[in-house]
Amino acid sequence: MLKANVETFLGCDCPADEARTVLFGAPFDSTTSFRPGTRFGPSAIRHESFGVETYSPYQDRDLEDAHVLDVGDLELCFGSAEKALGDIEAQTEEILDAGKRPFLLGGEHLVTLGAMRAVAGRYPDLHIIHLDAHADLRDDYLGANLSHACVIRRCWDIVGDGRIFQFGIRSGERAEFAWGRDHVTTQKFNLEGLGKTVEALAGKPVYFTLDLDVLDPSVFPGTGTPEAGGISFEALRTAITLICSKLNIVACDVNELAPTLDPSGVSTAVACKVVREMLLAFPDY
Amino acid sequence: MLKANVETFLGCDCPADEARTVLFGAPFDSTTSFRPGTRFGPSAIRHESFGVETYSPYQDRDLEDAHVLDVGDLELCFGSAEKALGDIEAQTEEILDAGKRPFLLGGEHLVTLGAMRAVAGRYPDLHIIHLDAHADLRDDYLGANLSHACVIRRCWDIVGDGRIFQFGIRSGERAEFAWGRDHVTTQKFNLEGLGKTVEALAGKPVYFTLDLDVLDPSVFPGTGTPEAGGISFEALRTAITLICSKLNIVACDVNELAPTLDPSGVSTAVACKVVREMLLAFPDY
Amino acid sequence: MLKANVETFLGCDCPADEARTVLFGAPFDSTTSFRPGTRFGPSAIRHESFGVETYSPYQDRDLEDAHVLDVGDLELCFGSAEKALGDIEAQTEEILDAGKRPFLLGGEHLVTLGAMRAVAGRYPDLHIIHLDAHADLRDDYLGANLSHACVIRRCWDIVGDGRIFQFGIRSGERAEFAWGRDHVTTQKFNLEGLGKTVEALAGKPVYFTLDLDVLDPSVFPGTGTPEAGGISFEALRTAITLICSKLNIVACDVNELAPTLDPSGVSTAVACKVVREMLLAFPDY
Amino acid sequence: MLKANVETFLGCDCPADEARTVLFGAPFDSTTSFRPGTRFGPSAIRHESFGVETYSPYQDRDLEDAHVLDVGDLELCFGSAEKALGDIEAQTEEILDAGKRPFLLGGEHLVTLGAMRAVAGRYPDLHIIHLDAHADLRDDYLGANLSHACVIRRCWDIVGDGRIFQFGIRSGERAEFAWGRDHVTTQKFNLEGLGKTVEALAGKPVYFTLDLDVLDPSVFPGTGTPEAGGISFEALRTAITLICSKLNIVACDVNELAPTLDPSGVSTAVACKVVREMLLAFPDY
Amino acid sequence: MLKANVETFLGCDCPADEARTVLFGAPFDSTTSFRPGTRFGPSAIRHESFGVETYSPYQDRDLEDAHVLDVGDLELCFGSAEKALGDIEAQTEEILDAGKRPFLLGGEHLVTLGAMRAVAGRYPDLHIIHLDAHADLRDDYLGANLSHACVIRRCWDIVGDGRIFQFGIRSGERAEFAWGRDHVTTQKFNLEGLGKTVEALAGKPVYFTLDLDVLDPSVFPGTGTPEAGGISFEALRTAITLICSKLNIVACDVNELAPTLDPSGVSTAVACKVVREMLLAFPDY
Amino acid sequence: MLKANVETFLGCDCPADEARTVLFGAPFDSTTSFRPGTRFGPSAIRHESFGVETYSPYQDRDLEDAHVLDVGDLELCFGSAEKALGDIEAQTEEILDAGKRPFLLGGEHLVTLGAMRAVAGRYPDLHIIHLDAHADLRDDYLGANLSHACVIRRCWDIVGDGRIFQFGIRSGERAEFAWGRDHVTTQKFNLEGLGKTVEALAGKPVYFTLDLDVLDPSVFPGTGTPEAGGISFEALRTAITLICSKLNIVACDVNELAPTLDPSGVSTAVACKVVREMLLAFPDY
């Protein structure tokens, strides 16, 4: 039977009514100040996912058994962060309305704000777990307050003090770190204390935002602003399994893959494996 | 409404029952002897087609008005040319059975043989127009007779003398040129005589096979075996418009784009434009 | 004597009070819809200019004799086209105030609008010569009216009918071409008629905007949206020499080099040579 | 004296009658399902070996003292795995007939099967040590049973249960792991237990097959299917020294380097060092 | 105010009379025997430094408070090592004359010799700390004694026995290691003993030369001769902080970044961070 | 029979005593001022020659009938132009002593001088045909008189006025062009007048030096200093056939391919075809 070509992330073509998690891409990088290219992240993850297996020997689970639907990339307006965020928020709303978990693939980290706006409206008690190399706590950047460098600060505008838990942070302005001390919980350089945070947030609604540059650039070179001194793949794999299996993740995102900066393809392969392990770790996979 | 991601060549998502031409990809390059990578050609053409416009100022026609469906890539067995050709033949049969024109995107040139087998079975009077840098007339290559270097010879096995018209040929073994003189019509180096050939074949069923390396490597660097001294884009554009608008093209293919050898992306962009112009040139577009 | 490192385009370090032309860069590509990277254009042109000679055997003139100052790149806000355009306009104003000719290096084509706003304020009779592959006449693009794809339409908002002369255009929506017929003069595909246009505009103030993708991608692959079928380097060289030597060019720009898409460096080299030839062609060089 | 150019792996031009180990390359990757390019592995290793020293500070031995001859690459038929394996088997036979140790450079992992067939015929008690990221235990892959993804299963067809010892495996189908539990010894993720295996196999004839993707992609990005979570260079170096110095290695191979996916060249450099350390570790070096 | 474009390493535009450290580049790689490209190192470090922050969360110091001036790259004669070294020596002299600390950015490692000649003339008791993958102790290389492979041997010609302390060395000829045992202190493979060396050299004038290939290629792929088995970024970061903060560093250099071999840009990013951390660690920063 | 691997340019493994032309490589680029990499030219040409056919449909001749031996690359000292030139001269002498025609593959253009010194000593009446984008007539460059930018001037030192005929020149200092007018015959931009020059030099001993950057960068991007506005492949092919078939070419060279700047491989493919056509054009092929 002849029909239009369907392309989804590996094994994520579950019928809409059975899906529990919905993947969608936000190919946006207009506020990226240094090296753009994360706009190509979601389609690269989708396209290259066929290089990994559906089965995880770590979790002994298989995407063939999972309930995930990949609805593809949004068509976003370049040059207007506000419009793009509006479209991301609307898509997130639609997924939440359908009773499913939104799983957003960026794009630059600013896309998180679009999803967060939708999610925070439904979960007044929302908490955020944030893995990243960069604090992203600036109030504005070169005159813009909708910038990748400000995204967690904008999330704080919504959720307020004591709700944001950062790990792996190793880069930022002096002022960001100073401001952060009073408003968010920041673990510099590594993931120490993550276990305790997971215990403390048990049962609460959690938005999990993963900037892949938390990984060391040796593991994940394909990103706009690589920061030496990051965590290993094994550390990240253990952390995401813990977070996604033990917490009530109401929405999540994975972002900052820039395939154009990844000529060997290893970063895209890492991103695919991270997405697979997250999808398989959800209790309702 | 949430549904699985659909990706087609630009504007080619016509409902199946209205489609007149059906695009499909054969991501196969196992017999490529020099530099592989054409397996990535069809998906690159599909993916990058969004960088060209649907409208052609050359023909004043628009893909938005065309009746084309892109059904995606076959999943082919690597390492067995015979199995891969069987799958291509079957897909071509299905499209012909549906009363539509098959438009195959390669892959290496050998994929033509799969489509040809299906088409030749229905059109005993089939003729072939072949644009290429290479004669592809070897009887075998390193012991294999199913090889990209033998594909037109294999087509000749089916259609016989006097049915094959080659243009742009500028590379081959001494023996290929010698053999060719008795069995096919070969225009070396350029497209001279194409107009007369088109006149002569008027009304007859024609399979049109386009190896993009007929273009000069300055225009189309992204191919496994670049051969300096090829034709210009404008020469090719004029030729394909002539062939597709004036002849009874019952099936066709475009092949030998190797995106991995095209870091600037210009070759993929050329391939997209070539496909667009061919699709728009068909009288029944 | 120890002093901070100065870097300018080859030979363009004339003292400010002697300079007649002032080069500046606008490293902006936030509205680029397909493949970003032109933000790196101005610094690549500056940095790689040392690969060309100061002397032009075409014009028998030497940059060592020219009166040009390169003041470097603006620091622009990413993610807000309006803010970026404001900064470009301000810089252009400053150069005009000093009685010098602004020469802007993009960046994506939208940057032209910033410079145009400043120039048009001073020259009510301003005309525009526009060399490009793309018409850039959309009224909006994906919801944004400040987009690279709309830039000439925005210029038309300022100067009105009969003032814009386009050459080399070979891509656009059907609607753009239709709209253009009533409002601008468009030469499709090539530069025919340029000589007459130059004669007709003799003595009038002219803004010259050059999108380098007017060149064929074989000559200039390093750009976001390559369009096969463009003009040759020799055609462009002759045209820019004519335009810059015969007309009253009150400001100009050269844009759309994306060095990240130019791994061999040939596109940057072409851009450097184009800038050199333009600088040397001005009667008051 | 003028003579035809000789190129061998660094320092491996020992006269044939004195050689104890014979290097040869099998530039084959036709069954590679994801990203081809390992066909260029052997020549890259040979060509880039001049970037490493002949002396190993780890073992305090020098290739200048070793007895190794590099006879170059086979010319293999692309598109027919069976023919290619036959040629590899024949070359291995010839080396064994000459009383020397075959050392095969791939190519994709399937090439191992050609060498194994020759070796197993002479050593009925043959055991296999297999370092890899992938289990390679499928019975067939997309309809082919001669596929890189099936190579260890095909070796098992020859040697049977209890003879194959896998280490570092971190990717495969669910079914492969299940089958493997009954037929081979698999150490997942790392090299634990290698010391005991080496003790247990003391004195027995061993074929050592090394798929370089057992290394973490940070160390070895240049391979078709990178799998995050692999072993470090130091872990591999220690292991190969142990295996080659303590066991009776009757033949061995190193495969899956894809230089086209290694733009910085680090993977080729790793491969060269691995080959050097293996060659120097043999007791009869 | 219009003035010629100034470009310096991030935040290093301190007025000359206030500067305590002076950065300068030596873009030279003529004696590189394997893969050239380090000539582009200094400008890449300068240009890409805007991707890192001025603030170090490791040291809680900020380049905005530092007293550093970047005077740019020397224009060196290619093809004559002696002339190039003379120019480097002269620049170093000028900086020393001004009472400032020279901080040289290479280029290949041979550039160290130019700076060393100037420094050794002023500090008869000079010691050298040398971090590198390669011993660089050859007396000559392919007939040249001014070669990157001989640079530490040439330094030894000046300072003599017992003054040079090498760490991380994992590559060299057998003869180099043998010679080194009698003349320099070499720690193979890692940085063990660095703490004791720093204690022993307290108060003495020290030249610190850092060949970035001491890092593992996974961390720093962008160098001419990558050597697997190197140290981690964290090990290097700790070491340079110790060396620069505890010792009397009278001059230093960082070399062997080859940006052309670093398509993802991670190596340049590492180099920028290393330079930042060194600049901030000096007691008089 | 096991023997060390032999690698030659396609089909050029003629026994030494039967060879009429001897190919050898000079992998040297130490004086290259802009972008190095031509050192990899000769081995790339040799290695990639297997992508072209032995048969030329242009000349209807086949390398299988030719008498050519490829003796491989010299091992040259980097960092000393004088030593490298000495080795090239010695190799050229040896070939001339054997009564064969030296055919040198560069490398940067300076290598010509080594061969020229040997040849000029035997042919007092030697003339030079020089195809290039650059005049190469500087007396010194950045203080060095042995530089790629001076090579034809150095040849003039040997042969004197009226013996050198340049074609295609489109770049140089003002002073070079001025000097050249009195001492050499320079055809700017194209090959006009080549036919007459060939007639005039009939029977005289001629050294033919071909800098491949005479080609337009669209045809030949892989070179250190690309200069837009060059000649087409067809123009070059015709010219080299004329020169090599009609003149008494006593030695020749082809240089300035930089494979590292040629990611698509088209430039190497062009160089291979140029070498093949030259070898087949010699009357005594």
From TrEMBL, chains A, B, C, D, E, F:
One of its GO terms (biological process) is putrescine biosynthetic process from arginine, via agmatine. It comes from the Bacteria. One of its GO terms (molecular function) is agmatinase activity. Binds 2 manganese ions per subunit. Gene3D superfamilies: Ureohydrolase domain. Mn(2+) binds at H109, D132, H134, D136, D211, D213. Its cofactor is Mn(2+). Keywords: Hydrolase, Manganese, Metal-binding. The keyword Metal-binding applies. PANTHER family: ARGINASE/AGMATINASE (PTHR11358), GUANIDINO ACID HYDROLASE, MITOCHONDRIAL (PTHR11358:SF26). Belongs to the arginase family. Agmatinase subfamily. This is Agmatinase.
